[in-house]
Design a protein that fits this description.
The protein has 14 helices and 12 strands. By secondary structure, it is α+β, with helices and mostly antiparallel strands. It folds into 2 domains: about 180 residues, no CATH class; about 190 residues, no CATH class. The strands form 2 sheets. The chain has a 6-stranded mixed β-barrel with strand order 2-3-10-5-7-6, surrounded by 4 helices. Strands 8-9 form a two-stranded antiparallel sheet. Strand 2 and strand 3 form a beta hairpin. Helix 1 crosses helix 12, helix 2 crosses helix 12 and helix 10 packs parallel to helix 13.
Length: about 400
């Protein structure tokens, strides 16, 4: 019986082709949205966690004050993005016996030119140990040495995106580029890191920190990394950095309102909280598409009930039970959802593949994500198909047979 009704459901879908297509399209878009948004969010989390893992375990991140007490994004505003640390903070933190190495960075957006070619990028002035603490190594050429920083040399290390935009397939090492009207020599090419979300980590140019401070006339830095000794606990390292930074405070300043000090563990947790919020929001947005699709299915099925009143009346007159009528229309609704879920899964896979190709990530879609999206799609069909099915089953067969529509 169920097999016959299932086959009949597919026949009815073909019979009402345009209506069925619109219903299927809604479910397809909803399921594809869920698969794409959840998968891309998870892939972004994995990529970012991998980049954080490059830092190593015994590392502290020091930035201008960021208020995260009300949530991972609540305290970050434009004023804090433009804040900086005094340049003396590097030497003060490095003086702590618990600290092995300190690296600082100054970030400036700007154009880099080579003849008629131009690339808009982030120019980072960095100290000598930055590449080691940041986990971004040189693929060819060399990194900055002490003499480069001491002499404020005009030298640069290019990441892969900038190298491609300025040189294409031409060799870049030893060539000249222009930054802020001054000529720099390319001495190193960095290994490729990929994208995080829509941000291209490889769209960077590194120059010596002292050179950046000179050409941009900026005395401070935007952030620091401090690696503490392996035999020192995280708590002792934090206490040591706090103790050292208090030397830079004036009488009316408080440490926790001037500097933010994060451990890798805290940075990872902050990231996971942020990604969790985005995932919940994006899933909610994708679910709205399925809700709209469900309303479309319900409307289409109600129209079919009205169009098939005579057919329903005949079936009831020859002995069809209320249950069989309900099952028939419910299966039609679920069949539409099943087709939409299958097409949506394929579309979601394609969308993730296209995005990963753009972001240069390894594509991956969790089977759990696909199963969740399909179940949501089928649940939508069953939920919103229930009322039209009950409406059909409750039709009076005598009144239905009088309908000549």
């Amino acid at each position: 019986m169920i097999g016959y009704l299932s086959l009949n459901s597919l026949r009815q879908m073909a019979r009402f082709g345009l209506q069925s297509m619109l219903s299927v399209l809604g479910v397809t878009i909803g399921v594809a949205n869920i698969i794409m948004l959840i998968s891309i969010t998870d892939l972004g989390r994995r990529q970012t966690m991998g980049l954080i893992g490059d830092f190593g375990a015994n590392l502290l991140i020091i930035t201008p004050y960021i208020d995260v007490a009300q949530g991972p994004l609540s305290g970050i505003n434009s004023a804090q993005f433009s804040a900086h640390l005094p340049d003396e903070a590097r030497a003060v933190v490095a003086a702590a016996p618990e600290i092995e190495t300190v690296a600082a960075a100054l970030l400036m957006p700007g154009h880099v030119n080579r003849g008629e070619r131009q690339a808009f990028t982030t120019i980072q002035g960095v100290s000598q140990s930055f590449n080691v603490l940041r986990g971004h190594q040189v693929a060819s050429g060399r990194w900055f040495d002490a003499a480069d920083l001491a002499d404020h040399r005009r030298v640069a290390c290019l990441c892969s995106t900038v190298q491609r935009e300025l040189f294409e397939q031409e060799p870049a090492l030893g060539q000249a580029i222009e930054i802020k009207g001054e000529e720099f020599t390319v001495i190193g090419l960095m290994e490729q890191k990929g994208r995080v979300g829509f941000e291209d980590i490889d769209n960077r140019v590194y120059i010596p920190l002292t050179t950046a401070q000179e050409i941009y006339e900026f005395a401070g830095v935007h952030g620091m990394f401090a690696r503490y000794r392996q035999d020192v606990s995280e708590q002792l390292a934090l206490a040591a950095v706090r103790r050292q930074l208090t030397q830079l405070l004036t009488a009316d300043q408080l440490l926790d309102e001037t500097f933010s000090i994060f451990t890798i563990k805290e940075a990872r947790q902050l990231l996971l909280s942020t990604v969790g919020i985005f995932r919940a929001v994006l899933t909610g947005i994708a679910s709205i598409a399925l809700l709209v699709a469900g309303l479309g299915i319900m409307n289409v099925m109600l129209i079919r009930v009205m169009q098939r009143r005579r057919e329903i009346g005949i079936r009831r007159a020859v002995g069809a039970s209320t249950r069989s009528i309900v099952v028939q229309f419910l299966l039609e609704s679920v069949a539409q959802s099943l087709v939409g879920a299958a097409l949506g899964s394929a579309l979601g896979f394609a969308g993730v593949l296209i995005y990963c190709t753009y972001a240069e990530w390894r594509p991956y879609v969790s089977p759990l994500t696909v199963a969740t999206a399909i179940l949501f799609g089928l649940g939508t069909g069953a939920l919103f198909g229930a009322y039209p099915a009950l409406r059909a089953a409750r039709l009076d067969p005598i009144l239905a047979l009088r309908d000549e529509a």
